[in-house]
Write a structure and sequence with these properties.
331 residues, Rossmann fold, two-stranded antiparallel sheet, DNA polymerase, domain 1, disordered N terminus, 2 domains
């Protein structure tokens, strides 16, 4: 899950035994997402972003088999302890892979098509709440931000990239209007090793005053995280993979958390649900038949959910149903 305020609270929730525990993750738009997936016993559904397993738990309870994807080894390790992984055959199959690779991974598991795909895009609350993962400026920790816990870290990027490259990332992925000023400040303060250091540099560059309604570090932290994890490319490739693996009548449900993500989902579904072509001024052009139908409008959390879980405030759900058309060539 991405986009929530990194300094936001993490409310408690009841566990299956009725006790109240600190929640590592509260699934956003849970009821609406499960309703869109409409799971039936015996179906196979992909949870493309397993995280702490909120959607997966609801899907398993509905009697389906879940193929769950996560590039974070900590999430996969936690999921491996679930009893459904040890059933024969297992009803929970875990894949330590990017969800953009779901078609290849499912084929390797002997699954050609699935009945549903759920995506909850970006960083999870579980990752935000662990200081040593380096995602949140509210918790001082190493400047990491890697979902997969390997490859280039945020510190690697910020301590070696030019101020022009850093500014481009801040502007493109964080919509930071003063990206050049922030980038120059980052370069001047190098080397940076912690989230606290980075947050202080950004705040000083932007003239932050305590008590302001929004911490100016939010946009830059979001941008750096998206860049380090190639999140928008992953989303585009994951949507295409979902189109490929969904059977006719299969359901796609995508929860996003900021405008850049939602724009990609909205454009994908608009293009995937279009058919025909041409106009009264131009000859009819050959176009792929629509791959999706019944595309929903944007669905947002109710006020009650936002009050219970402030991180839900920016969430948007869009869903659609797969048609009988072949996956588009572009996908």
């Amino acid at each position: 899950m991405s986009g929530p305020n990194p300094s936001g609270p993490n409310p408690s929730r009841p566990n299956p035994n009725g006790a109240t525990t600190a929640a590592p993750h509260i699934p956003v738009l849970m009821a609406e997402t499960i309703a869109a997936l409409a799971p039936l016993p015996g179906e196979v559904i992909v949870d493309a972003t397993f995280g702490a397993g909120g959607y997966t738990r609801a899907l398993l309870d509905a009697g389906v088999t879940v193929h769950a994807f996560d590039r974070d080894p900590a999430a996969i390790m936690a999921g491996s302890k679930w009893p459904e992984t040890r059933e024969n055959p297992p009803r929970l199959v875990l894949h330590k892979r990017r969800f953009s690779e779901m078609a290849e991974a499912l084929a390797e598991a002997g699954v050609d098509q699935v009945d549903g795909v759920a995506m909850d895009i970006g960083v999870s609350s579980m990752q935000l709440d662990q200081a040593d993962r380096g995602f949140a400026f509210s918790l001082d920790g190493p400047l990491d931000m890697r979902m997969s816990q390997d490859g280039e870290s945020a510190a690697d990027f910020l301590n070696t990239a030019s101020d022009e490259a850093i500014a481009d990332v801040l502007y493109t992925y964080g919509e930071e209007r003063q990206s050049r000023r922030v980038a120059r400040a980052i370069v001047a303060a190098r080397p940076l090793t912690s989230t606290g250091e980075l947050a202080r540099v950004i705040r000083k560059a932007l003239g932050y005053h305590p008590g302001a309604p929004k911490d100016p570090a939010t946009r830059s932290f979001q941008a750096i995280r998206i860049h380090i994890n190639a999140e928008l490319d992953e989303l585009q490739q994951g949507l295409s993979a979902a189109e490929y693996v969904l059977r006719e009548g299969g359901r796609l449900a995508v929860v996003s958390f900021h405008s850049l993500e939602d724009r990609i989902v909205k454009r994908f579904l608009r293009e995937a649900s279009a058919s025909g072509g041409g106009s009264r001024h131009l000859p009819e052009m050959q176009k792929d038949p629509a791959a999706f139908s019944s595309v929903s409008k944007a669905i947002r959390p109710a006020e009650r959910e936002i009050n219970d879980n402030p991180r839900a405030r920016s969430a948007t759900l869009r869903h659609a149903v797969r048609t009988a058309a072949s996956a588009r060539r572009a996908a």
